[in-house]
Amino acid sequence: MPALLEVANVSKSFGGVAANVDISFDVQPGEILGLIGPNGAGKTSLFNSISGEVTPDRGEIRLDGRRISGLGPVACARLGIARTFQVVRSFDSMTVLENVMVGAFSRTARAQDAMAQALDVLGFAGLTARADTLAHQLTPPEKRRLEVARALATRPRLLLLDEMLTGLTPTEAASGVQLIRDVRDRGITVIMVEHVMEVLLPLVDRAVVLNLGRVLMQGSPQQVVRDPDVIRAYLGDKYAA
Amino acid sequence: MRGNAITRRRRGELVVGAVLLVLLIALPLPIRDVYTQNLIITTILFAGLAQAWNILGGYCGQISLGHALYFGIGGYVSTLMFVNAGIPPSLGMFAGGLVGGLIALLVGWPCFRLSGHYYAIATVVVGEIGYLLFLNWEFVGAAMGVYVPFKGESFIDLQFRTTKLPFHYVVLGFAALTWIAAWLIEGSRWGYTWRAVKDDPVAARSLAVQVFPSKMAAAAVSGFFTGMGGAIYAQYVGYIDPDSVLSGQLSILIALPAVLGGVGTLWGPLLGAAVLIPVSELTRSYLGGGGRGIDLMIYGGLIVVVALARPAGLISLLGVRSQAGGADIPAKDADARAA
Question: Using the beta-carbon criterion (under 8 Å), do A151 and B192 form an inter-chain contact?
Fold first, then answer.
């Protein structure tokens, strides 16, 4: 099966600091890919490149074989890439429903249609009861759900989740995991950045491990946890077998 | 269905708007006093101008302190067309609006690349440039300004000498038009995406909202109605010069009712104008003169009090939530600071 997303030799530096160095991997349609690595490994930078927020210095990113790097966030969103943010960004003066409608307006110009689609997505994300609440009044886990709902309203093919489960209680994280599975079952490919390994590894089909801006290794969750390089990067040399 | 809350709210707004319109149609009928008539006309005109400002400043969050430029240019365009080509101001005001909108686009093209306070500062400078340009431009009368010749009473020329009543209905029509424009925008894709741009441009971009074009569209609409208001004002006072229609003080006067009433709300600009313009006029006529500026002190003090006590605007007293400013966000922040 041809890859949905191809990241090919992507490098990106910020003021002399190399955030990403020669990163390459593919994402298959319908898979959940985990992007993991210690703090400062370059995960969020890579997300910013894939979502079009920044342009890689070298290499390119392709969606369905078509180059998307350098097109900017609006074009990437139109082509079917949606994202959430590590630090939640909600439209705080707007209600939950209105937030999601902004996403839906990327596919329709009619307010009636946008509202119907937004309500549908809110039902899917379990936020129907909060539709008329102002976004800034939501609890942190609800805000994360709102970001997912808003992203889904753009009808993406690829969803980028940046630490969506971080900082949640185990119960909240479990329901977040279920939401991500439901998203995948809708046929949407997911790439997720996460620190919480024990939550992430059972969920993902494959993981790419970044360290110091480079791909350390990629493979199945089982391969990742056994890899001596990964253990060294996370825990230090003395734990490496 | 949850979405009905939005539909219900919007219907309610239309009903309140219609009732308000009927009241304002009846309001001047028993009034014979010219001073009061003038006060009401000025208030309604500024309610319309503040609403026009609100479309850009409130919904899209781009604080302009140079709106007198669009106002003045709208006034000059319509007046010069009337004086030099005999084109009636009832048509000329649309031309004035179009040029006002066009100028707003020209200003926006470089200035929207700046964000936050820098945009506001740039608009101050641009407004001042416009003022100086007109002050020295012979074709538009330079510092002498332009007199509007009287060609007889008519709605076509927007000229009335014997009574102010027709002007009441002209400015009321203008204010109603800006209100309807704001109401329509609120319920449309523009309204939603503009508010998203105001709240968080990065998140908006990630949802395929085009940030720069959104600001430009909001500026064009805002500039159009402001220019139209300038054209009407020129016919009302019969004489314009750079000091009366292009001054920086006027830019503040256009923005202030919206800011004080509640930015990004349908009613804020109206409420702000209804409070601000009469207070400004009354303090000036009772306490002005003598050169001690007591009227301005009271006026300024009032603004400070409102800004401190009700940062979301007077409208928040009525429990109306801001469509863009987040009526209870600033209030909550203020509480947090006080705690």
Answer: no
